[in-house]
Amino acid sequence: MLGTAVIVFREVLEAALIVSILMAATAGVRSRNVWVGTGVLLGLGAAFGVALFAGEIAGAFQGVGQELFNATVLLTAVTMLAWHNIWMSQHSKKIVAHLKEVGAQISGGSLPLGYLTITAGLAVMREGSEVVLFMYGVAAGDSSPVEMLSGGLLGAAGGVAVGSLLYLGLVRIPVKWLFRVTGWIILLLAAGLAASAAGYLSQAGLLPSQAPLWNTGDILSEKSVIGQLLHILIGYQARPTAIQVAFYLATMALIGAGMKWIGREPGRRLQQVS
């Protein structure tokens, strides 16, 4: 039961943290619960679909279908998060200034609320499919169904609880700093996802396979609780390759440049981006 709880906790935690950050980053936006909730539900449904066809996915593209699928999901999420940060760099000041009436302000504006559904759905789909596959594996073994179910529920509750604590902590930040703080978190989150995508592309043979630049696994393992949290939030990897570091830095530079550029532009260019 303990093993099931720990693994489910890790997978649920990753999705819960991303959803919590999205919720905090869109504080004051009307209908965000509906958009994010829809994404979570779609993600859960897609997770079961991915798990059911895991064999076909893994066997596609000469046996590297799973790696390509993971890389595609991660890079799509990076694109959605970049879109959010660039959009918010233009509108965060207006939201802070008119937070009480932000619902009307935003609903009449051009906030791409669909990104909430897509990003939340991708996060839940990726982690949820891994949970479903793991549970299939456990069910095929000698584990008791009661123990497996108990461990799964315990792990899921723990992941949701930690994600909720992060959300409650973020929303306590003064509004004038909230969007800046969540913007930086999302920037680091996107860079970490891009680095992970680079790892999958290397495994698929589309990028060169490289030796790690360093190894800090003895100091802080990615499998530890702190290592896992840092992996999710800032993209910590104990044994990153040069390509992964390059993806990480390039993603930060591109999103940061986009935020700076669009933040200085008036509404004319905002319309082109939205």
Task: Characterise the protein shown here.
- The protein has helices at 2-25, 32-52, 54-63, 65-97, 102-107, 114-140, 145-171, 175-203, 225-234, 242-264, 267-273.
- The N and C termini lie far apart (47 Å).
- With 274 residues, it is mainly α.
- The chain is globular and about 55 Å long.
CA-based gyration radius: 19 Å
What is the number of E strands?
0
Distance between the termini: 47 Å
Look at the structure and give the mean pLDDT: 78
Largest sheet: none
Count helical runs.
Answer: 11
Class per helix and strand makeup: mainly alpha
- The fraction of residues assigned to DSSP E strands is under 5%
Low-confidence stretches: 100-109
SSE sequence, one letter per element:
HHHHHHHHHHH
> What is the percent of helical residues?
over 70%
Taken from the alpha-carbon principal axes, the silhouette is globular
Give the SSE layout.
Layout: H1 2-25, H2 32-52, H3 54-63, H4 65-97, H5 102-107, H6 114-140, H7 145-171, H8 175-203, H9 225-234, H10 242-264, H11 267-273
Helix pairs in contact: 1-6, 1-7, 1-8, 1-9, 2-6, 3-4, 4-6, 4-8, 4-10, 8-9, 8-10
Brief descriptors of the model:
mainly alpha, 274 residues, globular
Précis, in short:
This protein has 274 residues and is mainly α.
